[in-house]
Amino acid sequence: MSELAREPSAQRATNPVSLTGVSKRYREVAALDGVSIELTENTIHGLLGRNGAGKTTLMHILTGQAFETAGDVRVFGEHPYENAGVLNRVCFVKESQRYPDWFVVRHALKAAALLYPDWDETFATDLVHDFDLPLDRRIKKLSRGQLSAVGVVIGLAAQAPLTIFDEPYLGLDAVARQLFYDRLLADYAERPRTIVLSTHLIDEVSDLIEHVVLLDRGRVLLDGDAETLRGDAVTVSGPSGAVSSFISGHEVLHREDVGGMARATVRGVAERPDLGGLSFEPVSLQQLVVRTAQSRRDAEPRRRVLDGPVGAGSANGNGGSS
Amino acid sequence: MNRLLTLLRIQFLNWRLSLAMPVGLLALILGINLAIFASIGDAAPPEGRTTGAIMSIYIIIGVGYLQSMTQLFPFALGLGVTRRAFYSATALLAVVEALAYGALLLVLSLVERASGGWGLGLKFFAIDFLVVDDPLLQWLVYAVPFVAAAALGIFNGVVFKRWGQPGVYAVTIAFSVVLAAAVVLVSWQGWWPQLGGWFAGQGTTALFGVYPLVLALLLGGAGWLVIRRATP
Fold first, then answer.
1. In what order do the strands lie in the sheet containing A261-267?
2. Where are the domains of chain A?
């Protein structure tokens, strides 16, 4: 499933994050199911997937806050659980981050400054100004957006070699989100480090992320270079017959038929032949992610009866609904 | 060690709340008691001019540690702090803080005795059953119960982080059942006189300096086992 998992082990040992066959089970539910991924150094990784796909569980395991039930977890080459040498270099900003009730914004920033040796106070001050954060207000009294901004400031100013943002934008308006992306990118260009950005606002971050991991129901559906993935898929439309013959033998992520015309999204097609009135459109990362998740759901045998009708697809992934 | 000192600093980032509030509340409670005993005049006989309000400072400190576990712990873990470091720092803080508050109460008890019970014959700090002759032992009699209060708060906080509210209920119910069973057993066997005699024979130092320490160590050890798998 994952191309990168086949890298030689010498390469793997140096990656900031290396997971092999990691699973996490809660009684009958598998939050993560055999996840093997490599996150390379100095890269912005997008961890994508729907709610409940296992993104947060994965990040909790990476930071030693949750425990895998099977598999091998390596962060900077070691297991992160209670590992001060590893965790000192990791900053995890999550959407549901709890702050002590008695802290004002200044205290939260000061705590992070004390804990991270590379903390950039000037950068933090700039960011506080950018996000218009009231330093002396109780964190309890902040709006949802301001609360998210506190996390963003900590995550960026901490300058941790592995920085993990779990949907850090809740309550931030479009302008503030763009500010976050801009500041992240500018700082990253100046001081490269490994950043994991978990999000479902895929369109917003598609220019930002270099490597994509798509999780669905605890499994890795896509794992690859963002640029390659985008070029890898194409939407073709035209007369049904021509579309059908063009896409046969390829992985069809989505197909819809209206009248005699068809429109299909396929992966792994390099050529764009000028024949039979076929037209091609590029596929955005968001479309690719949505279509991939949908087609995998249709193709996959149902895990639970309640999920819906069985047998909507065939084993080779070609049986998209039509 | 460096990490521990950093965590101690983080505990005191809002020092007004962490330090001044308990002391301020103690002053307030003392003030209220002084006002009450001044206003009732001779209505209370000399042997009745004792108050147990000193208990409140122990509760305040215990609750502070409970909140430290439920609120500061999840925050610190997100910033790459290990459970071990956080727990050690909290335990260290509990001991240091207990010694400091113990010293404060010792000084205040000396003032109370020297001033004839704040001029009112009031026993707020130097309550008869707390008083021992040796100043060092007196310090421990005041200090050690703070460690136990902190350990109780920490243990409850850790249980909450590990198992949530059902866990706290379960621990509380289990404790109540054990206590009730003990009461039934003692009543059934008619052991109350012996038990009373045993307590009376223990002496202040044992009751306030030794047993709370044993309790704190047991709770502290149990808390460590629980926190190891706690999630923030």
1. A251-258, A261-267, A233-239, A279-282
2. 4-217, 233-307
> Token match 């296992």: residue?
A54
Alpha carbon distance B136, B97 (integer Å): 17
Domain membership of residue B23 as a residue range: 2-227
Judge whether B97 and B8 are in contact, CB under 8 Å.
no
How does DSSP classify residue A138? B
Kindly state whether residue B64 falls inside one of the protein's structural domains. yes
Please, what CATH class does the domain formed by A4-217 belong to? Answer: alpha beta
Q: Is the ipTM of this complex over 0.90?
A: no
Q: Which of A60, A95, A103, A196 to mutate to test the interface with B (most CBs of B within 10 A)?
A: A103
Q: How far apart are CA A219 and CA A50, in angstroms?
A: 12
Residue B114 lies in a domain: yes
What domain count does chain B have? 1
- Say how far apart CA B67 and CA B157 lie, in whole Å: 7
CB B226 within 8 A of CB B159: yes
Residue type at A68 in one-letter notation: E
| Residue A264, CA distances (Å) to A12, A214, A312 in order | 37, 21, 17
B45 contact A CB<8A: no
Q: How many helices (H) and strands (E) does chain A have?
A: 11, 13
What is the rounded CA–CA span in Å between residue B132 and residue B147? 19
Q: What is the DSSP letter of A304?
A: S
Q: How far is B74 from chain A (nearest CA, A)?
A: 6
Question: Which pLDDT tens digit goes with each residue over A10-58?
Answer: 555 689 999 999 999 988 889 999 999 999 999 999 999 988 899 999 9
In a domain, B55, yes or no: yes
Chain A residues inside the 8 Å CB shell of B74: 97-98
pLDDT tens-digit series, residues A84-103: 999 999 999 998 888 999 99
Q: Does a structural domain hold residue B232?
A: no
Nearest to A105 by CA among A152, A137, A131: A137
